[in-house]
Amino acid sequence: MSFIDLAGSEKGGDVIDMTKQIKFDGAEINKSLLALKECIRALDADKNYVNYRQSKLTLVLRECFIGSNCFTTMITQISPTERHTNETNNTLR
Question: Where are the domains of the chain?
């Protein structure tokens, strides 16, 4: 059983003290989440080829997606407030 925290990075404007390292880390997180989204879309469309090598995250999760006895569940945290509508919609998509 694998548990993986896929916390997305906050928008740059939401962070008061934005260093180069924070920007780099945020970009890497978003790149991994984008690769994960593409893998999920390819699996949903029953494509013959799924590129798991786009990120370390998808490479690690490969067996969770294609194993014979695997079930994958995604749990998300969304906000009921109006000011977080865009982030909530992106999460649900």
Answer: 12-87
**Under 8 Å CB-to-CB from 31, ≥6 apart: which residues?**
55
Cβ contact 22:15 at 8 Å: yes
Instruction: Tell whether domain 12-87 is in CATH 1.20.58.
Output: yes
Q: What is the pLDDT of residues 7-55, one digit of tens each?
A: 655 555 555 666 788 778 778 888 888 898 898 888 888 888 888 888 8
Q: Provide the greatest CA pair distance for the chain.
A: 46
Q: 72 vs 18, 62, 64, CA distance in Å?
A: 34, 11, 7
* Contact indicator for 3, 22 with CB cutoff of 8 Å: no
> Is 52 exposed, middle or buried, given 0-12, 13-18 or 19+ CB atoms closer than 10 A?
buried
